[in-house]
Specification:
By secondary structure, the protein is of the alpha+beta class. Helix content is 13%, strand content 22%. The relative contact order is 0.22.
Length: 163
């Protein structure tokens, strides 16, 4: 089991203040239909011990401490299924928020290459999720052993395709 897996799957209790009282927010089953139909936002993660990379590539998040993201996954790239401006025959037809957050881990041998190039599309991720390729099997049970499905839903628009 990958380090931080239990933390990635857990949904901590949060508290909120409203009109002077302290309330507990329970996000265990928030908007299940939205989650079921949401597209993936992949966090493709790098083991910290492998950084800096011999290729010179620097992860998009170097590091980013997103709320609830376990420490072993803070060095990562974000890969989404589509974005506005890519055309319906491109990937914009799949673009919609909210996003369900999926965690993957690069194979250390793959990222150790001086010719390393990150995975930049959902199709590339799907192709890399096989034994001996670019993504590690990080869980022993579940529908996809290469992905940690966090259960978290992110409502966040894409504001530019020219970042």
């Amino acid at each position: 089991m990958a380090p931080g897996l239990d933390a990635a799957r857990s949904r901590p209790a949060h508290h909120a203040l409203a009109r002077g009282s302290r309330d507990r927010l329970g996000a265990n089953v928030s908007m299940p239909n939205a989650y079921q139909h949401a597209e993936e936002l992949y966090l493709v993660t790098y083991p910290q011990a492998s950084l800096p990379l011999p290729s010179g590539y620097v992860p998009q998040c170097n590091p980013c401490f997103h709320p609830g993201l376990p420490q072993p996954f803070v060095f990562h790239d974000h890969v989404i299924t589509g974005a506005p401006g890519m055309g319906n025959n491109g990937t914009a037809g799949e673009y919609k928020a909210p996003w369900k957050i999926i965690i993957l881990r690069y194979d250390t041998d793959y990222i150790a290459s001086p010719n390393f190039r990150p995975l930049t599309s959902a199709a590339a991720i799907d192709a890399a999720e096989h034994p001996g390729l670019h993504i590690l099997q990080i869980i022993s049970n579940g529908p996809n052993p290469y992905e940690i499905e966090t259960g978290n839903l992110l409502i966040c628009p894409t504001v530019s395709n020219h970042a």
